[in-house]
């Protein structure tokens, strides 16, 4: 079998079109969503993401505010900027691009963002709310993966899901969302024993490892749905965490890299900004953008 390609790029474009329509409806009521993105330092990959986030924010009709600080900025200065953005009524969402320079305490910086404006969903309150089933801001990459999975599979309940990776920004929240949808979830990591055998039991396999071509084709259960979160830059270009050519022979459906999860992450950032704006104005959550 050759797997169906899950076209994240096309899905994300459709999602952005729906966000643009709902943004236009808010603007008719005098409300324009605003997203502030803060970039500390000059990491070239981060600069590319920040530029494309800014472009897409404007394309859907929102206001984009970019703040670039030198790498050697003292943490107190970044915290002061966050405090200003927290108080600014024109700013509904705040994203601080990660990773931060080594002299900064990432958790302290993220937790300084008002949880209601934390469109990354990384604040400890949002993580706790997601884990306990309360209304939260949900991390963009896992939210995008969930949307692709539901679109492909419909009801996920009872499916066996393996998430490789336990980071706070991808693996853990991904597992929470799958659990909420009643999957039977296993979280794998660098200490997991016999990962290939574990993966062979998975109806849904999400790879968020950060190692090129790490997941092999013969780890895939025939017909499984494979979501490749990995973004790895190697000499031949951008590749995922899954050996795409091998996995494609066994999987039922698979996301490519590029063109899979990456574009969904940015679309979900805009979705979260719209959700945050609606909530800040006492309006109901926008249709179809929250889990
Ligand atoms: N498409 C998108 O929008 C996004 C893509 N990414 C990409 O996703 C990938 C993961 O990102 P992130 O979660 O931040 O990465 P982290 O480095 O924070 O986490 C990687 C995880 O993989 C696990 N791991 C590492 N080696 C192995 C191994 N040999 N066997 C099993 N597990 C292993 C680690 O285990 P342990 O905890 O034991 O060390 C860890 O839990 C990266 O390629 C990143 O670039 C990230 C964010 C957004
Ligand atoms: N606070 C914070 N929030 C993030 O969400 C965040 C972050 N920091 N730091 C870095 C990671 C990475 N990330 C990506 C977003 C889009 C693509 C994306 O659009 N990728 C395209 C290709 C882009 C290219 O060609 O380089 C694709 O996969 O098709 C990838 C990766 C968000 N991250």
From TrEMBL:
GO terms for molecular function: methenyltetrahydrofolate cyclohydrolase activity; methylenetetrahydrofolate dehydrogenase (NADP+) activity. It catalyses: (6R)-5,10-methenyltetrahydrofolate + H2O = (6R)-10-formyltetrahydrofolate + H(+); (6R)-5,10-methylene-5,6,7,8-tetrahydrofolate + NADP(+) = (6R)-5,10-methenyltetrahydrofolate + NADPH. One of its GO terms (cellular component) is cytosol. Pathway: One-carbon metabolism; tetrahydrofolate interconversion. GO terms for biological process: L-histidine biosynthetic process; methionine biosynthetic process; purine nucleotide biosynthetic process; tetrahydrofolate interconversion. It holds the Pfam family THF_DHG_CYH. Its EC number is 1.5.1.5, 3.5.4.9. Residues 6-120 form the Tetrahydrofolate dehydrogenase/cyclohydrolase catalytic domain. NADP(+) binds at residues 165-167, 231. Homodimer. Catalyzes the oxidation of 5,10-methylenetetrahydrofolate to 5,10-methenyltetrahydrofolate and then the hydrolysis of 5,10-methenyltetrahydrofolate to 10-formyltetrahydrofolate. This is Bifunctional protein FolD. It comes from Paracoccus siganidrum.
């Amino acid at each position: 079998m050759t797997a169906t390609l899950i076209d994240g790029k096309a899905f994300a474009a459709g999602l952005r079109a729906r966000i643009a329509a709902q943004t236009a409806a808010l603007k008719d009521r005098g409300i324009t969503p605003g997203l502030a993105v803060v970039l500390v330092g000059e990491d070239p990959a981060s600069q590319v993401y920040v530029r494309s986030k800014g472009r897409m924010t404007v394309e859907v009709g929102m206001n984009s505010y970019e703040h670039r600080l030198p790498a050697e900025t003292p943490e107190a200065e970044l915290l002061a900027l966050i405090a200003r953005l927290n108080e600014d009524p024109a700013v509904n969402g705040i994203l601080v691009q990660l990773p931060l320079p080594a002299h900064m305490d990432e958790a302290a910086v993220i937790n300084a963002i008002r949880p209601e404006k934390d469109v990354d969903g990384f604040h400890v309150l949002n993580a706790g709310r997601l884990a306990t089933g309360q209304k939260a801001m949900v991390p963009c990459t896992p939210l995008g993966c969930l949307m692709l999975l539901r679109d492909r599979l419909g009801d996920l309940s009872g499916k066996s899901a393996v998430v490789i990776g336990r980071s706070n920004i991808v693996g853990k929240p991904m597992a929470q969302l799958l659990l909420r949808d009643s999957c039977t979830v296993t979280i794998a990591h660098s200490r997991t024993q016999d990962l290939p055998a574990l993966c062979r039991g998975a109806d849904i396999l999400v790879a968020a490892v950060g190692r090129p071509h790490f997941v092999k084709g013969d780890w895939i259960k025939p017909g499984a749905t494979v979501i490749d979160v990995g973004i790895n830059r190697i000499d031949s270009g951008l590749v995922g965490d899954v050996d795409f050519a091998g996995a494609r022979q066994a999987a039922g459906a698979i996301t490519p890299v590029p063109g899979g999860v990456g574009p969904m992450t940015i679309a979900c950032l805009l979705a979260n900004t719209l959700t945050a704006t609606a909530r800040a104005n006492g309006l109901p959550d926008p249709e179809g953008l929250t889990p």
